Amino acid sequence: MRIGTSANNFYQMTSAVREGLAQVQQQIATGQKNATYGSMGMASQTWLDFSAAAARASALMDGIDAQQLRLKTIDSSFNGLGKTLTTTRSLLSGGLTAFQAGQSTAQNALVMITDLLNAKNGKVPLFGGAALSGDAVISAQAMIDGDATQPGLRALIHERIAADTGGNALGRLGLSSTGTSLTLSAQGGAFGYTLKGATTHVPGLNVTQAAGPPVTLTLSGNVTLAVGDQISFKFGLPDGSEESLTLVAGEAGFPAGPFNGAAVATALGARLAEVTPALKTASALAVAKAYFAGSVQRVSGSPAANATALAPATTMPWYLGKTSADPRQSVQALVGEGQTIRAGVQANESVFADLLSAAASLAVLVEDPALRTREGQTAMQTRILPALSDRGLAQMQTVFGLVQNQLADAKEVQRGVKTIADNYLSSVNRTDNAEAAAQLLALQNQLQASYQAGANILKLSLVNYL
Length: 466
Hints:
The chain is 53% helix and 15% strand. It has 466 residues and is α+β, with helices and mostly antiparallel strands. Strands 3-4-7-6 form a 4-stranded antiparallel β-sheet, with helices on one face. The protein starts with a helix and ends with a helix.
């Protein structure tokens, strides 16, 4: 019995040492003190909480990284748009020869803008708001040409120019005169010039305006015009802008002497012919602005030169993304517990719609040889060039730069959270290799001593038994 008892004690003792040895070896191999949560005792819940915090911080940083990449691509598109605008502005403001030779450059501006607005992050259109796939806008060709059933901007602009000019240089104005009076009448209804007024400092020359319809403006007086006397007219154009013309007595086409309605009509008609490019440019912009604002109307009736009204038109929707009342809210990045950063952008925002309006107008207008002239260039400089400003683009780029900074700050916060959690987890469950090695050596020595002691016990017990 003593042999059995001694053997059992020996096996129990060596088993405990071997188990301890195995645990230390596992700790060294895994770098962790505890293989299971249960083995951590009361610290297990705290360990789980810190582990969850580290995982959340990692996930948030991954989301922030994705948003930073997205915004970096958006910024690249902003830079590309800026370069395109600079090139186009240079064409309009440069020499006449370069302007006349730059039709393809002017038309490519619209292509470049639409391509940049269709930039994607994977399959997600960056300028499509909350849309997850597809393009943000239709192609430049579709904008200009439309399709088999819906007109594009080229057709709509050509119709509007015909309706506004009336097929002649007078812009749908009627000019009637008697010996000492001249009456202008706005006969185009919704089209052509509107009469804003006339001024003169010639004593006895009267200006009267009647609301109509049609609106009329009459100059009359039995007066004599001296060299240098002026009569100024102000006209409203289809895009909401104004054009002023001044007749100076004694200059070519407008002789000094007794006021003569027919002579004034002739001189005014000649000056109106000179500003026809301005009227055409304003017509194109009026159509393009309505198109990109989603309120398209087209000339009602044929021929367009005789039309007096607009009618609703159905065109291809140019914006294909999703629309939010606040575009920034369309994409939100979660950066902390209940904390989000707004980072959405939509191609139908006014800053982009204005650029598209100007670029599309330019693309159609430069097809007209009559506008590839000094007067045509001046008209486009006056009305299209300001719309190609990159000021609004720069402001939006600044806004998204601030968003980038916010994301970077939020990432640093989450990196700090993860560092704190990781440090705690390491301190609680990390194996101290030096301590474990010492413990391993001690256990190995203990096991060896146990084997030796066990052998002596068995030997002694056997002798006693014999």
